[in-house]
Structure formats: structure tokens, C-alpha cells
Design goal:
- The structure is a single chain.
- By secondary structure, this protein is mainly alpha-helical.
- Helices cover 65% and strands 4% of the residues.
- The chain is globular, with a radius of gyration of 21 Å.
- It starts with a helix and ends in a 16-residue tail after the last helix.
- 35% of the residues are buried.
Length: 253
């Protein structure tokens, strides 16, 4: 194996991580200027800090991310592009090491705990129209879940079931995201003609792609919602990676 092929996977993972940090910088900067749901979810709500002028002077304040240590304030830079907030690489790296690493660990944990089921789910996803079916099934399940929660809210007896419904949907989505991460990693290997690698390495690259999509300024919340919805649909269609899969034929006897 040549040196270029040997270092292809580490280089790809490093590039994806760098892209994620750069996108997180833009996401945080945009969130400091205008409301940004994904930025708030990644690094918490913003606060106002002084910039060397009296507190009564409103133009002399900037919205940045909250940090108890005050280290983040030393890494705040004015954006060269007008209309967005200050750039804070420190907060972007912290978001990557917390939210990004959390997403990666959850994805890898799902593959380690359920390797056989994950393989079945990925094979179903790689089949013809597999991704379209997963997204469609996810949309249907989201609508059914919202309808079930709405109905349960009006009943005192079954109100306690609502957290259980949300928990099951969350677990299904996490399993599906783990499988989608592996699917993306395998897709990258084929498209970039990379050498064969351990499935967890491919899943690591795929999880970083999901994180990169999630931190795209403003569009990231929709991209991550689509991935989570597809993951939920994949878990339902494959019955959490069951070998038999889901079919209307099960209703016939």
C-alpha cells in the first residue's frame, strides 16, 4: 500500500474536522447577530460582554457565547464580513469537542452494541431507493409521533406516556443516525476510491459529515433534522436492523 493511500483516511478525517470547526465559527458568528437555533443548541445561549466602553453605551457591546473561565473572550476577533457577529475560534473548537465528539461517540457506540443490526440497516439503505424510503418513512413517523403526543396531552391517564414516546423516537433516531454515518463513510470510500478500512473509521468520517451538515449557518438545523428524520425512518423500516425488515406482508396470514 502506497503512503498516499495509507494516509488517505486520516487526512479525510482531519479535513472533515477542520471543515466542521470553520463552519462552527460561522455558525456561532451568525448566531451572535441573529437568532440561530442550532448555534444555541451547540454552545448555549449568548451573553453580552463589554468591549472597553461604558456599560451605558449600547453600541459598545457584542453578543458572544457564555464562558465561566473568560478564556473565550481572549479569542474574539472582529469579522471581516459586515453584518455578522464576532469570530470566536475557541468556542467553535469547544463546540466541536463537545457536541461533535458526542455525536461521534453515540454513532460509534450504536455500531459497537448492535453490529449485526447496523449492517442489515446499512444494506437496506444502500439498496435501490433505500434513502428515499428512509426519508419518507421518517416523515410519516414524525407526523404520527406528533399526532400521538397531541392526543396523549389531552388525557390525564396517558399523559405520562408522552416522555416514553419521545424516548423511543430518540433511541430510534440515534440508531438510524449511527447507521447513516456508516453508510456515508462507505459512500465516501467508494466515491473517493479510498482503501478498505475498519467500519468504525468509516463511521467516524460519516459522523463528522453529519456534524458538518449540522453546523452550516441556519441551514444546519434543517439538514440535521432531515438526517434525524431519515434515521428514524430507517430504524422503523428495518425494525432496528432486523434481518426480516418491515413489510405489509406480515399482516397476511
Amino acid at each position: 500500500m502506497s503512503d498516499s493511500r495509507r494516509w488517505a483516511w486520516p487526512l479525510l478525517i482531519g479535513v472533515l474536522a477542520a471543515i466542521g470547526i470553520l463552519l462552527a465559527i460561522g455558525d456561532i458568528a451568525a448566531g451572535a447577530k441573529w437568532p440561530n437555533p442550532m448555534s444555541d443548541a451547540l454552545v448555549g445561549p449568548g451573553v453580552v460582554v463589554k468591549t472597553g466602553v461604558p456599560a451605558s453605551a449600547t453600541p459598545g457591546t457584542q453578543t458572544v457565547r457564555f464562558d465561566r473561565t473568560g478564556v473565550a473572550e481572549k479569542f474574539i476577533f472582529e469579522s471581516p464580513i459586515g453584518g455578522i457577529g464576532p469570530l470566536n475560534p475557541y468556542q467553535a473548537v469547544r463546540a466541536f469537542l463537545s457536541s461533535g465528539a458526542g455525536l461521534v461517540l453515540l454513532a460509534l457506540a450504536g455500531l459497537v452494541v448492535f453490529p449485526g443490526r447496523a449492517r442489515n440497516a446499512v444494506e437496506r439503505l444502500e439498496a435501490r431507493h433505500g434513502s428515499e424510503i428512509a426519508v419518507g418513512a421518517g416523515l410519516v413517523m414524525v407526523l404520527l409521533t406528533l399526532a400521538a403526543i397531541t392526543l396523549l396531552r389531552f388525557t390525564l391517564l396517558f399523559l405520562a406516556v408522552v416522555p416514553l414516546v419521545l424516548f423511543v423516537a430518540l433511541i430510534a433516531s440515534l440508531f438510524g443516525i449511527a447507521c447513516i454515518s456508516l453508510w456515508i463513510g462507505r459512500l465516501l470510500r467508494r466515491r473517493l476510491r479510498l482503501s478498505n478500512a475498519h467500519p468504525l473509521i468509516a463511521a467516524l468520517a460519516g459522523a463528522l459529515v453529519v456534524f458538518d451538515l449540522a453546523v452550516i449557518p441556519y441551514a444546519g438545523v434543517f439538514a440535521f433534522a432531515a438526517v434525524a428524520m431519515a434515521g428514524l425512518g430507517l430504524a422503523v423500516v428495518t425494525r432496528f436492523g432486523s434481518a426480516g425488515g418491515w413489510s405489509f406482508g406480515d399482516l397476511i396470514w
